[in-house]
C-alpha cells in the first residue's frame, strides 16, 4: 500500500516538473532574429555542453518566429554537435541531418538562392560525410554525402575544392587504399599558396598519415617536419605537440626505438600537465607499441589498456582490442586474451548495427525527399492545369478549327496511304510472280541440262559396253571390225570432250566458274569440271562415265575437292555450290 502511494507521489512530482518545464519554455523570452544569427555564429562548430543548450534554444525560438534560416541553422548545428561531442550518437546525427535535408528540398527554399548560400551547403555535406566516415566508421555513407558537394563548389574556390578532395582521400584511407589517397592528395600541394594555414596543415596531415600506413617513414618524417614548421610559425601550441607525437612514431619506424620512447614520454608529460585529452590517446597507443618493440610487455599492456579507456572512435577501439589481445597472447595470459576478443566482437556487432541503421535512415530520407518532390510536382501540375482552364475559352474555337483541319488531313493521309499500300501490294505480287517465273525457267533449264548430261552419260556407257564386247573378239582379225572399234573410240572421245561439256554447263551457269576462281584461285581445270558436274546433280557413276574414269577416282576427287573448298562435313558439295550461285 505504502509503495503504491509513493509511486503516485513520484509520478505527480515528475508530471509537475515536466509541465513546469513546458511552461518555462513557452514563457521563454523571444530573441530578435539578428541575435539568433549572432548566437549561431558564435557557437557553431563547438562541442561543449553550453553550445548544445544554446542550439536547442535557437531551434525553439526560430520555430516560434517561423524563421526558416534559424531552424535550418539549428538542425545543422545539432547534427554536428551529436557527431563530434561526448554525446556522439548516430541516430541523432541522422535525425537532424534528415530534418535539415528534407526542409532544404522544398520548392520555396530551393528558390531562395541567398538562403542556400548563407547555409553553406557544401560545408554542411562535407561535415556530415566526415562525421559518418571518420566518427562512426561508415565510409560508404560518408562518400554518399561527399558526392553532393562537388556540384555545389563555386568555380575558383580552391580552398573548398581542396577540402573536398581531402575528404575523398579520407574515404580511400579508411578503405586501406593508400596509393589512391596519395594520387588525390599529392597534386594538391601545388595549390597551397592562397589556401590558408589550416587547410594546408590538414592536407599535410592526411598525406603523412597515408605514408605512415604505407610504411614509408622517410616520407612521413618530411611531411611532419613541414607541419612542425607551420605550427611554430602560427604559434599553434597544440599543433606543435601533435606533430612531435607523430615524429616520435617516425623515429620508431626509422629504427630508433629509444628516441621514439623519449620523444613520446616528453609529449605525454605535456599532455598530463596541460590536461590535453585529445592527444593523449595516440600518445599512449604509441608508447604501448614502442615498449612492445623494446621487449617490455608489462608496460606495453599497461599503456594499451590505458589507450582503450581513452579511445573515442569505434575503429580505434577495434585496433586497440586487437593489439591488447596480441600482447596477452605473447605473455601467455590466454584467458585475458579471450576476454579482450569477446569485447572486440561485441564492438564489431555494434558497428554492423550502426551500418544497418545508417542505411535504413538513408533509404527513409530518400523516400521522404521523393515524396516532397512529388508534392512539388503535383502543385506545379495543378497550377498549370488552372492556367489551361483560364485560357480554355480563348482557345476553344481555335482548337475546333485545328481538330477539323487535322481530321481532314488525317482522312486524306489515310486514303493516300491505302492507295500507296495497294500499289505496293501489286508491285510485290508482280515481283513475286516474276521471281517464280525466273526460278521455274532456271529450274527447267537445269533439268534439261541434267537430262542431257545423263543421256550423254548413258550413251557413253552404252558405247563403252559395245567396245568392250568387240574387244573380246580376238580372232580372226576382221578389218571392218577394227575400223568399227576405232569409230566407237572416236565417238566415246568426242562425247567425253569436257571442253564441249564445260561450255554447255557454263552457258547455263555463266558466273559459276568465275565465282569459284575468284574465291579459290588455286583450283585446277579438272576440279572446276568436278564442281560443274556436281552442280548438275550427276551421280558418281554418271560423272565417272562422262569423264571416262572409275567411280573410285570420282569419290577421291570429290573428297579432296571438299577439303580444298573448306566445306563443313555436314554440308554436301552440291549444297555449297547452290549457295554460292545465289550470292
UniProtKB/TrEMBL annotation:
<protein>
    <recommendedName>
        <fullName>HTH luxR-type domain-containing protein</fullName>
    </recommendedName>
</protein>
<dbReference type="InterPro" id="IPR016032">
    <property type="entry name" value="Sig_transdc_resp-reg_C-effctor"/>
</dbReference>
<feature type="domain" description="HTH luxR-type">
    <location>
        <begin position="520"/>
        <end position="577"/>
    </location>
</feature>
<dbReference type="InterPro" id="IPR000792">
    <property type="entry name" value="Tscrpt_reg_LuxR_C"/>
</dbReference>
<feature type="transmembrane region" description="Helical">
    <location>
        <begin position="395"/>
        <end position="417"/>
    </location>
</feature>
<keyword id="KW-0472">Membrane</keyword>
<keyword id="KW-1133">Transmembrane helix</keyword>
<keyword id="KW-0812">Transmembrane</keyword>
<dbReference type="InterPro" id="IPR011990">
    <property type="entry name" value="TPR-like_helical_dom_sf"/>
</dbReference>
